[in-house]
Amino acid sequence: CSPVAASPSSGDAPARRPSAAPPMQQQGRRGSTAQSLTGEQPRIRRRESNAGRAPARGLRRAASLDAKLAGLLRAAVDGEGEDTRLVAQRPHPAEVLFAPGTVASVWGGSAASDVFRPYFSHKVLNTHNYAQFGDLPYTVGVHCQRGQKQNSPNQDDSFVLQRKEWLCFGVMDGHGDHGHLMSHLAQEVLPKSILERCAPEGGTSEDWQAAASTAFHNAAGRLRRVYPKESRASGTTASVALLDRSGGALRLRTAFV
Questions:
Q1: Distant-in-sequence, close-in-space partners of 252: CB < 8 Å, separation ≥ 6
Q2: Given this model, what pLDDT does residue 72 score?
Q3: If both were cysteines, with which of 24, 48, 66, 82 could 171 make a disulfide (CB 3.0 to 4.6 Å apart)?
Q4: How far apart are CA 66 and CA 60, in angstroms?
Q5: How many CA atoms lie less than 13 Å away from 118 in the CB half-sphere?
Q6: Mean predicted confidence (pLDDT) in 216-231
Q7: For residues 29-37, average pLDDT
């Protein structure tokens, strides 16, 4: 999986462009590339090449992957095209904490059938309220693909949740024979536990360190209860970030295990 990147839209002009990118571990040998989800057409940022020279290979690759992911998500919204099987419209479990239609999300789908897909295939994604990303403050992106590990599905997972007040995102890397089950459940449980404590709708936010610690402990307990046998020899890493404003200034808080 690639980094998940965040940058303000044109309507937001702080003194310095923020960057929030906890690393996403990638299975396989391909490089990582951030994808743009904002707007009907992908936003592709290029550096100007020297006169008479073609753009660097990495920039051409970024543009290609960016357009591919934007096409996948448009296919899910429009319900057309052969790539609709890679994207499903489904709300993230954390969205129940907030008023309907106020949270846009892109998050990993179940990877159990991924073992039958070709190497370097794009991970199945879930998305909800995708069209709202163009109206929200931050440009975000995600790219995740299966590696070259025989008889094993993609064990990486991720989530992106955004509303006008904040952006929450995270990445998970499962390990062990059932690591894909651990990472998928963790990305469903962790953000809900963190957001209900640190970004409550109409409530008071708790201390980040205490809230994140509680959320990770709760997630570990949930894994053991749902997968009592599988969790004995399998698990997952997890990195979570919450970007919001405090007193007008951007604030980035992170936690990981």
A1: 18, 20, 241, 242, 243
A2: 66
A3: 24
A4: 10
A5: 3
A6: 96
A7: 34
